## 1
Amino acid sequence: MANRGGRHARTEETENAINYVQCDGLAVMKMVKHCHEESNNMDLAQGALLGLVVDKCLEITNCFPFPKSGDETMDEEMYQLTVMRRLRRVNVDHLHVGWYQSSDVGNSLSLALLESQYHYQTSIEESVVVVYDTQKSSRGFLCLKAYRLTPQAIQMYKDGDFTPEAFRNLKVGYESLFAEIPIVIKNSPLTNIMMSELNELLPEDKGHNFLDLGTASVLENHMRSLIERVDELYQEAVRYNKYQQVVFKQDTEKHRALAKLAAENAVRTSKGEPTVSEEEVIKQFRPMPVPARLTATITSGQINTHAQHIAQFCSQSLAKLFITESLQNAKEAKEIK
Amino acid sequence: MQAEFKLRSKILLQPLVLLHIIDAYERRPKDCTQVIGTLLGRNNPESGHLEISNCFTLLHKDYPNSDRIDVDLQYANDMYELNQLTYPQEKIIGWYATGKEVSRSAVNLHEYYARECADGNPMHLLIDTSLRGQRMMMRLYTAVVMGVPNGTKGLMFSLLPVEMSSGNPESVALNLMKKNALQPTKQVGRILPELVQVVDITRDLQTKLDLVLRYVNETLARKRTPNNTVGRALHDALTSVPLVDAESFRMMFNANVRDMLMSITLATMIKAQLKISESVIAMPDL
């Protein structure tokens, strides 16, 4: 119960900055275009988000892509500044409110993402990272997620202390590294008018491929990456266990040495000789470095999202299967007649 | 020139461009009545058609009732070069403007873009943002030279056929926005969970089936004159459901359901494990 209360207090803390993200259709479409174009080249797409903060809502009104990372000659900061300055002249919001990245399921919440987001959030407090899942979206489910680091995660990264104690003191767990912020897509009335015009022009059958029944390959992919992550976590667990064993062994040795010393000291005092202080002995046993918990925590977070995705995916697949069943039943009933 | 456009039978327009133009229009400077900008495009590798895939807004100053227009050309060049860095395959193919009709400055702009365009044949996209006739008109023009040979010549902007193009992922996003535009509900713009999406589409399907059913019943009751095309289309739809024999369908169905349930169980178990392991590690030293 205490844990739950603690988490509640934590969400309130994050709410102080931003409650939800409101994304313009234009920015969504730009991200979709960029991410899919890069995913055709098997590249990771990244870009900057532009917008403004109104009360507790972060509005993303525009975005622009970062150039391909292969080009080393270019100054990325310079590029960003130039683009923003240019866009400002046509009255685009020029507040840099975060960045976006294409990714496939679950793997997005990586150490690299944590690092970049840390730098963003320390320089611009309100910034978010938007993760766009290309795989899922090309199967018919628009998948945009906005994340922010929780205040504890920032504190932890700032301290650079990844020991289990530090994690415990800050109450950081795999669920409280990143906070997901709900995204809302909103268009201006004029855009909505245009959308209803488009309604007549666009083919009806596009974009409904999420009713596809071929689920085995998708599930297989999910499972494969889940297994990889679990393996990683296992490695981390093994490392931690080893550490615990070593510490335990050291402890027993220390106790033995101390007991020996106490006995010797007792003999010495009875003989009236000066005693040897315990510190001498303790010094011989250097404390073991504690393995960092950061990787394990991040991997746990990834596994958690994978598991969530799988559960979601399966539930909708089951729904589709039952739809097909009723179709089949109707067909069979007709045959019998 | 004209022959070229005939070969290029279809021009595809990405919805992103329209969204961009409307955004630009809404953000225009106070004293401006219209926005103009450069259209960028490329050849769609799948269909071979020319596709208008991107655009950027230009800084300009227009003078009503004259054909004079001042455009910041330096800005246009800079924007094009910046775009080249991220989308190197996109080339200048024309310009867009908002307004009721082709403006008087179009001839001047045409001259400029004819120089910038790779094939010397720029296109002009016109969007009526003033919503005349309760519609938002979108038209694509190309300028055709007309006049007397060796005599006075002029430019005529003639219409080009244009079609909306959107890849699958774009349609997914568009569908969602369309739904919001057409039926504003309380949860505006929320990205729905997958299961809800499937439920929604099932409901859609049901209403469509009801519609068809009503039509069929009315036709059978001689209340409606039968229509052969509709009948054939219905027949096609009915026969498109493949008949799988009961045995193999059961097999497939059961295997799939088993897989799914198994996966859900596994996923839940892993989640529980994670929780436990974290709690154990976070346990204070005794």
## 2
Amino acid sequence: MSKQHVTMTVNGDPVEVLCRADQTLLDCLRDEMGLTGTKEGCSTGDCGACSVTVDGRLICACLMLGVEAEGRKIETIEGIGESEELHPVQRHFLEEAALQCGICTPGFIVAAKNLLEKNPNPTEEEARYWLAGNLCRCTGYDKIIKAVLKAAEEMRG
Amino acid sequence: MTLQNGNGHNGNGHNGNGASNGYKYVGTRPVRPDGVDKVTGRANFGADISLNGMIYGSVVRSPHAHAKIKKINFDKALKLKGVKAVISGKDFPTLKPSDKLPGVAPLSFYDMSRNVIARDKVLYDGHAIAAVAATTQAIADKAAKLIDVEYKILKPVMTAADAMKEKAPVLHDDLFTEGVDPTPKKASNIAKRTELKLGDPEVAMQSADFIVEGDYSTETVHQGYIEPHACAANFAQDGSVSIWASSQGAFMIRAYTARLCGMSTSKIKVIPAEIGGGFGGKTTIYLEPLALMLAKSSGRPVKMTMSRTEVMRATGPTSGGTAHVKIGAKKDGTLVAGTLELKYEAGAFPGSPVALGCMTGFAPYDLKDVACLGWDVVVNRPKAAAYRAPGAPVAAYAVESAMDELAHKLGIDPLTLRRKNSAKEGTKAVYGVEFDRIGNEDCLQAAQKTKHYNTPLGENQGRGVASGFWFNIGGTSSAEVMINEDGTVIVATGSPDIGGSRASMALMAAEVLGVDVSRIKPLVADTESVPYSDLTGGSRVTFATGKAVIDAAEDAIKDMKRRAAKVWKVDFDQVDWENGSAICIENDEIKPMSVADIAQIAGKTGGAISGKANINVTKGAGPGFGTHICDVEVDPETGRVTVLRYTAIQDVGTAIHPSYVEGQLQGGAAQGIGWALNEEYVYSKEGNLLNTGFLDYRVPVASDLPMIDTVLVEVPNAGHPFGVRGVGETPIVPPLGAVANAVSNAIGKRMTSLPMSPAKILQKIDAG
Amino acid sequence: MAELQFAAPETVNQAIKILGGAKGKGRILAGGTDLLVQMRSGRIDPGFIVDIKNIPELTEIKKEKNGFRVGAAVSGARLGEHKSVKKKWPGVVEALELIGSTQIQGRASLGGNLCNGSPAADSVPAMIAAGAICKIAGPKGRRTAKVEDIVTGPGKTSLKKGEFIISFLLPEKPKKSSEAYLRLIPRTEMDIAVVGAGVSLTLDSQGICTKARVALGAVAPKPVLVEEAGLILVGSKLDPDTLEKMASACRAACNPIDDMRGTVEYRTKVAGVLATRATKIAAERVRSGR
């Protein structure tokens, strides 16, 4: 047994993939499925660049094995936003200039969208603590937090 | 001068709504042109490259801080199925000490080559020794572990103080201290002595009523970009090479890699990937020559990606160092003299930014009698790379702490003391330059007027202020402005976009051409599609590359005017350019032609339309001054610090895209706060780095910081058509002092060592 | 070098069988937030990974007559969303929730945090203070053990070969009881505890402490139950003098190391501070009925 057959749903589509037991979900997404929007910054769960959701739960894809994804629903940055229209979190990131280099951005957007699904009206403090596992070295977080709070406001209507 | 309270108080400008500064596009806040790709995961960074037939590289790194390499045995690795190539230092040309580029920050290819791959000696934990390429990353990593290296372990020396001792282990037996007359005959770890002096500080100091003097220390810190270094290289049978890499300069990679691999520049093409942060740390090369040689040896494209651990052990960082500062003042607060002695750890090879520390430390002050002495010292740590205003933060930390102490001693408000002595137009800095119109005083004044500075503090809280200076540079930049058939515009430059510079390029081109910014597409071209440009660094891109874009746009306008003249059958000088259209000066019955109109008839009037500019800006990069205010609360029982409020004030010249200017201030402040409070390299006694990840190398997280308010002081730089001044580096200079002063004021005792960990602070509190 | 194998059994017995067949090279995977990091760094090299999250017993939270039973692999995020457990065992829940980021919370578990054997594990002092009991399965059947008896030293546990923890019983508390956990980290999130303190209290109607347990983390080779500290609190109204005595008992129980996260002196000092503060928070929770 060198590779295991794993069936999962990725961004709504059924996916079958062969992965070694030591490959992380991050490796599977990037190397086996070509979904490189999920980034690797540390591979130890300390930076959040590889944030994805599994059955709606926010996790670091570097801390989950690919073989554990059997039967699970995975959502990555590639699944956020319609073909014609960005998700409000994405749009507010652009409008607020909440990214400089952009490497942490996919992880932040996945994490922020997950926050707003669970808590549509977060305080600044709640947003900061929810996103504490997503490192950004460029912005000082100011504009990121503002973008998330503005997206929340818009989504509440 | 205009003031902008940052943080969106201006609203988010929309395309072409016009800014308050008299420009139509400059100063507005459109969505960045590369934005959608970056919020949807489509943007390709260094590690996202995939090539046909690609294999993967892995690096063997030294587990010892200081050792001789006796033997490298590849036998076991080569037996592993899937291994395609192995290389070591022997596969690279041997360079000589004379292989270098001179300058303020000289560049030694001899050292760079030995840093990229060790030859006879390893000089730090993580130093690359060999590399292997295999069909999968897992096999390559396994093979790397099977490469046997025999060492003769030597005693490491980890700090400048130890390395300067008479009997310290010597890293390089061919290193003789520069800057000392006569040059010593005995090799040592002191690479260079730098001295700068104005007037006679020793004599002037005697006229002081008050003198403050102190020793300050800091640790090695890392740039901490989130994207690890990554590249891919292809070596074709005809000897031509393509390298995909994320870096601060594709031309830099081409030049350095060619030099280290003994190749001609024309054989190497570098295609820039998006760069996931650099802050100076990606202004040099690590993996590219290894990937190239592995590709050459295996005949397959090779991709190499560092792990975070490798990034921490073997790239970056910036120097830790010590400072001894002495400032003398009259009773009324007038500074009479200042001296500063800096000792910086260069890492394994010479070249710490100590000279830059000497040049910048006292720059915010008008001192006629001042001296700075710097020592560049090699130690068994990774070779220091540039980090945002290299050398300046540590020097400023010492000077700004001393200024705070002086203000207390004199009973003068610390901003008033700084204003009283601020460098201004005509002030001569210790490094010999006389300042033009600068915004130093304006920043201090603006700081004093902030609501923040005038808000009272609570119990266990303290406020700190500090100023900072950075030169900013110009340099060589190229740009091409291409008019598409439909009148849309491509702006190509060779400057990697590290924090939104595409947006600035588009705005400046829009302003010159009179074309809506949404119709302009800026791009970062590869090394064969645009002429040479210096790397993205020194806060030079919006200034110098921006100038090239302006020149290129003007060149394109000239071309378009020529086309209009041809169609209208008038002389060229009868055509003017207004609001994005060619107009006929003398005959207003001739309907103006827009860019789109002219583009449509390009074929009939001489073919495609473009403008270009290749420039070297040697003058006019306006220096940047800033002042930061920080409030903290210190838990008196645990020594833990909470940053309560922070404001960054800076003379940014004309803000082209104010949101990204604010972002630079906020990001620099955050990095400086991390440096002040938590970040440091921790080594074992044996010289092994203990905190090789983001768990224990503690960069600030979102919940550690408050909103970072910004005040953009806009003193237009006379050296640039739109008044641009570099903004990226200055913001990391004041925070170390501002935070240290805030903590010191909260506990009523001076903190003299960074990072200010809870344990250090509690010890100070409890010291009674 | 044999290739790593993986299985995700659906019953405890299957898991025991697979572990038995792995000849000592088997490792349990719960949230994986420590295991995967250790594998990546080369610190461990398991031959067989047994994912226990498909076994219902390990992922359930249910009320029993003696308290609540929490599966060893229940994630921090799930436990945090469980209102009744959070109300009664706020110390345990807040301790588990302090581990790592939101992302880590999506995976990290009480079982993993305990079996990793770290002296600085956040949830362990809180569980010790709460008097939590482990249910353990192994080749020789099932047994129970107190949480404080599991970790024996850094990275070491008293679990025998082939054994693993199935669940924890958080024992029912008398009325007017509560608990709290505090830790000291340099940042606000994402760090390993420099010191941790868990306190569980019961007060009577006069506000006199009738029962108390105090446990500390990161101040000794393993998380420690400071019995004396608890005894000092009992019978008092948690007045400043008593709290200071309790704090010195905590400091006396410290046997920490100097490392990059803290010094002996600092850890010892702060252990007393945090134990005092946690006691005050727990008492306030009793009084306010929260």
## 3
Amino acid sequence: MEEKNKNNQSDYIIELNDLTKVYDGKTVVDHINLKIKRGQFVTLLGPSGCGKTTTLRMIAGFEKPEEGVISLEGKDIADLPPYKRPVNTVFQKYALFPHLNVYKNIAFGLKLKKVEVTKKTLGGKEVKKLVNMAYMPVEQKVVKKDGTEIVKTVPFRRAYQMMTVTTKKGVKKIKKVNLYKKYIDDKVKHALKIVGLSDYEDRDVNSLSGGQQQRVAIARAIVNEPQILLLDEPLGALDLKMRQEMQLELKSMHKKLGITFIYVTHDQEEALTMSDTIVVMKDGKICQEGTPIEIYNEPTSAYVADFIGESNILDGVMPEDKKVVFAGAEFECVDTGFAPNEEVDVVIRPEDWVIKREGNGILNGEITGCMFRGVHYEMTCMAGGYELILHNTVEYKPGRKIGLYVDPENIQIMHKEHVDNTLPVRFTSNTTFDLCGGVYEFRPAACFEGSEYDEENDVLKINGEEIVLKGKEGKVSFEFESIDMTDDEYAAPLAGNVESMIYKGKNYLVDIKTDNNTHIYADTEYLWDKGDRVGIKVEGDKFRFSDLDFMTGSDAAGEKENA
Amino acid sequence: MRNTFRKMLATPYALFMALFIILPIVLIAVYAFMDKDGAFTLLGNFKDLAEKEALPKVIKNSVIAGLSTSVICLLIGYPIAYYLTKKEFNRTGVMIGLFLVPMWINFLLRMVSTKAVFTALNIPLGMGTVIYGLCYEFLPFMIMPIYTTIQKIDKCYIEGAEDLGATPIKAFWKVTVPLSMPGIISGMTMVIIPSITTFAVTEILSNGKLMLLGDYIYSLRTYNLNLASAISLALMVLLAISMIITNKFNKDENGGGIW
């Protein structure tokens, strides 16, 4: 990469700048920026609906971005149709043409390819100039005179069909010609060999197993020597064993071919095994980008930590630099730069807990469960009121009292993404407001400081001044704990679908997406399932309001939470 | 118990089949091998047919009319069916309805009015006008099966082709057309068979000058039901053979065709 890039070529083969895609008013991909290095295996990782497939489809050309630039080798290709882009895709459903056999499926792209040939006649002599395509050796069986067969490596045959064109003296003529048949033949056979399906040329694609179809789909893409190979959850339809095998094969193919792979998956294990770089996405945005080791060891948010591998995610407070309090104990850590007493998320991987004798660690706990997991034991432990997961090669029986210690470097501390729910509201009366289309009742006397409410006459006085709330707009804040989730959506003013849950040792932090795509976070002891329809109930005295026009800076009750 | 009850449920259908499908076929077969006096004759009726002077011409006309109708219907119907599958063109399904509405209007009425238009325009009635009428009549039968097969083609095949470097036009010829073959074949059969055996269209639109097989059978019905049966039987056998052949070529992989 060092000396080859003389002509200003950057290390990045493709750059996405501010890329945005909107479907029916919903932003699926939200101003993402991504640079991908030449020859890398990059994985876009995230749950379904996070925009990873849409991003891939924009690179392939099937979707047009509303905004942004996709620059391939420095050229913007965002408006180029898919057939003009030097990228090929392996589709989730394979998309093998059912009316063509394996050979014809793979040769499809090559047969369409046209190559420019320059022909010159100099002094009546015809000179054919052929620019050879990427050199790929091919193995040929040669039968010797004495009957023994040897395998010889020979370069590819001529790539283009020779055409005799009569041209005038000295006049250059450029002609587009098809690839030479024999050349296509060699390439197809070579591609089949790479995917391990030699001798399958004449098979009907419908007669192949899922794994074999997958291989044909890969062969069909790589035979065109794309600059970037896009893979859209290609292993999703395969069973576990096959999937693991194909993971290794894809990785070795990537090494052999040396082209850039962009891989989309929701399987974190797959991403960790195969990638050079992982890009974790959520809600159309990139959460974190890094090597698998970085992503695993230094997640930058609770979301990433939870999504990648097992982890203990706990609420903590940082009283000062290099000190963090969680699960009722103070730990040393290496993080600095947080505000004093800032609420943080603390992530500790289960294998990072050091188990000591009771009293010798920082935290004391009791083992509550133990499971053999092959290489290690997976144990649950109650400590300081929190349930922790520990991995250890030594077995500790349930009931055993232990001390726990963590190396400061293994404590990963992150800013909290949200401290409470703060959302815009519009009041519909002195005791009700509209939040995302749901009408909540509240007790003004409890929610506004220094207020009096006369129920009979519907008169609200704040600091002695009468105020009519109807029609006013502002912000409401309420704590995660104040939400009561119910499975009867009609029993609550507002309903939504459970998007994700993170276990915090004591309770679950649930992300509920309402019908107008607002996220509301709730703390709950109960386990909900992704996609569950839930009603969001909040007691009338748990609201704090802010940003209302009659409020001055000092007596805005919601001010504290907003800070 | 349960089983016998279930079998009983099929009785109405079995009766219907016996009465309206099997019995008529048997009757046609019986009549075809019977002479005027009701005596059995193996080839007598067919021999008579072969001696009819009008028959070769009728067959020739039928072949010309049937083939050209189905080809014209394909050329007109395929693009229509293709565009109807496009969402932006047929968002509410109204367009497809518009193309099928002519089927709801009595076809005799349509033919008579078409004839009136031709005469008003001083266009001589003949083979051309007959083919026009047949196309008018049977175009929906071409559109429907092609529409359903194209609609069933997964969009990922087209995307796959474009990804591999095919322009939209190339992708159409190399992927959409081959994958809609079952629809094309059933459309062709659905047009060619009824257009050969129809009778009113030719009579109206050629003023009785032209005769197709349907008209010929119709003309025989009053004085020789046996000959009519013989032609029908021969036609049936021919159609069965052609159907078997097309099915051999068109191993229905994805379903789609109506036949």
